[in-house]
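Final report, results section. Input specification for complex C-07:
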Amino acid sequence: MGVIVKTIGSAGGRDYSTLAGWAASLPANLVTDGNSYQGNCYKDSEFTSTGGTSILSLSGHTTDASHTITLTTGPGQSFRDNANVQTNALRYNAANGVAITSDASATAGTIHIEDIAVFFSNLQIKSTGYAGCGIASTDAYVFYTVDDCIIAGDRLGAIYNSRFTVTIRNSLLYSLAENAEYIVHASNGLPNIYFCTIVAPSGLAAPPNHAFFAGYATANVVQNCAIFGCGALSSGTGSTYTTCMTDLSSGLPSGVTGSITYASQFQNTTTASADWREKPGGNLRGAGTADATSGATDIAGTARPQSGNWDIGCWELVAAVGMALTIDAQAAIEFSLGLSADANFPVGALATARRDFQNPLEMGLVAIQDRACPLGFEGGVASGLASNAEWLSLGFADQSIACEWIGPIFLDIAALDEWLLQPSVDWSFAGEWLGSSLLDTPAPGEFATSLIGAIPLTIEFQGQIQLTADRVLPIEWSVLPAIVRVSLERLLASPSKRRILGTPGRLRLLRRQ
Amino acid sequence: MPELLLFAWDHSTQSSPPPSQAQLAALPKRFDLITWQVDGWKWGADELSHPWFRLMVWPDAAPNELNVLLSPLLPAVDMNMQPTTYRQYRGFHIDVTRINVPARGMTWFSDTTRAAPQLLVPKGSTPRLTVATVTVARAPIALPGVIPV
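Structure output:
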């Protein structure tokens, strides 16, 4: 048994220039033929048909589990392969990768399918036909699987006349049409749907009547799905829902959490600028059920889970990695690299903070608008004048801020060399006070102590802190068993003390564990 | 100047094992229009060489008439909206014998070697040859045990 792979694209040099040509070349009986067939689409141009009929029809073929039909994308051709997949708006956009559209109306579907053992992946599919739909079937015994696709339908939704033998995973399914009937329609039990985002724009005057329509109550599974913008959840029963979320507030079965604020979950929910990437700080984050079988990667190719979070919907928020910002207390704070959408950073705050504010570091070094997010930091402060005695206040940090652990702390300038020699923090140890020439290890539970620093006093720090949503980062860290706060504000505010000069440092968002 | 990709394979007699009646209804049939594209379209290698296809260049063909040839034949339904006939791949097909040079057309169409890569239907023939002129409707195929309405 082999797989006959053909290329499909309009640039010349492909095996087929059209989807219809490729489909017509398939043998009637793949089982006796002995092969599976795979069409690899190329983004030479948008696959388009404007004759009012489906651009691709798959019907009449004999297949089985070992002799299948697959339509996917060639290497590097999918919207998932786009270099900007993490920042591109998540919606149908032919500029991002292979895209297939037609103006097929009503129940024809941009893709019409009646075969079994068919697999679609990595595609963007859209219907522009009057009351059209993305993938349609008749009442036949269809059996197909959709993975990692964007499917945009019209009034008949993204999927029409499917059934419980259909599987849809890690896909965005939506309709932009006013008065749409549903997003997913099934003649006999809904498809089994995992990690999908099933939505209509928030601004529709007449949103879809239902997200789902299911004829007959045949059992199926809807798991880890985000369902927003519809008038009701489902017409029909039979579905077992697990860790799904919706903005609907009533008539919800077990397994669906309602009354979730739509606008807080996605980057943009409007018709004109729709972008159904998950928004940091939303409820979808980490609210899903672990399922490595159906959700090992998200629609953008991001591995699940990230930082242990199984996000609901087709999008998995990427843990922030390797992004740095500069803390220079003598100037405005700025990032040395682009910061992810996880962080909201009020540039310039620390410039203001140079004044002797009572609590300058809480003016907003960085606020993480997300759930718990490890933040690595390193940097330093130093007293400005020689022969001056400075002091530090050590105390327990606010317990509402979960400081996980901290690396080394050095309190004299000589130790800076040692610090610099360390290529990285030993993340494996937690809260070990390394000691210094100036300060003894604080006793457990010690609330405050003081020290007289050598001249000049330099503090270098580096470590990791676990921020909670929308919290402003104070510079603080923990040592076992206590949590230590370096109260820089007291240094700054104390009239009897010298002004602290900030030394350049960096805040670095680390990969979530 | 539309270019037409026609289907030349007859699944009912040439595919082995022979497909069922239901499959035959769903599969492309001989003379069916698979797709059409504008003049100069960069057809794929298989579309140009696969023995199941033929490429016809037809300058006078009207797009809206060609689109009719792409429509499936939808099943007839009874009063309960239950189908009584099969859904077929296309509702219409081209009768090659009706083009200007019937003998040449059939010879070209029957040549599985595709020695002549494409057939050009002369532009401006008199009377002007339209798609509708050579279009033939496919007959419905009744579902087993169902009396067509």
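Chain B has one domain: 3-136. The CA atoms of residues 84 and 144 of chain B lie 9 Å apart. This concludes the modelling results for the funded period.
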